[in-house]
Write a structure and sequence with these properties.
Structural class: alpha+beta
Distance between the termini: 61 Å
Shape: globular
Strand content: 25-35%
Number of domains: 2
Length: 286
Amino acid sequence: MGEITGSTRRAGRLARWRHAATWVLAAALGPVTGLAIAEAATERARTSPEATVVEVVDGDTVILDRAIDGSREVRLTGLQAPKLPLGRPGFPTWPLAADSRAALQALTLGQRVTLVYGGRRMDRHGRLLAHLRRDDGLWVQGEMLSLGMARVYTFADNRWRAAQMLERERAARAARRGIWAHPFYAVRAPERVAADIGSFQVIEGQVVDAVRVRSVIYLNFGADWRTDFTVRIEAPARRAFAGAGIDPLTLKGRLVRVRGWLTKRNGPMIEATHPEQIERLAGPGL
């Protein structure tokens, strides 16, 4: 037992030494190169062994040839691709769903991939939540976004590489690639979302007012909070915003782009659970 404990301690000290050495080297090489080295080290710590994609279910889900961490099914975290019915009675096929699936097939089917975890590793359906990196280095999520075959869809417990994903989405939207040329996926104005309750939307508009009511912050996009579009930010999310250096109350008067599932609470509402759901814009159309 003592020998095992000693070996474990030595392994722990070695891992800590390697981690510290990585950051010392990163600091010595300067902010840009150093950051890249540190990020690469962090990514390696989150990486699975390689596997081969043997089936593509839809535009954001694949099946591997063998189980990794207890599952063969991988949900590409950070993406929301157009949805297929997949056996759900009465579920409508979203426009370009087959195109999105075909794009992911072209990128991954038969390819060796590595899973890179950015947060929670498995969803309630038993699917792994991961980024996919091909053995030639291609980042699959980034490529799907660049092709305009998916939207950015992050969670409070899975936000890794959100800034890079949003950047890729912006470029595809500006070029009207893929889904961004179809009205079903068009960025909505706040006053035109009442008919979109129950759907995932990207909404762009000016915050008319930002108020705190007890522990909750509301961003109102119209003069009447009872009927107009609102973003709700509860206490746990406020801490996430603070960690990102953002005070939602300062967004009054700002043009922003918001994403999430629309519910009806008085008027249309999106619950913002993490700061990546709200992009601060410098001007219209950015």
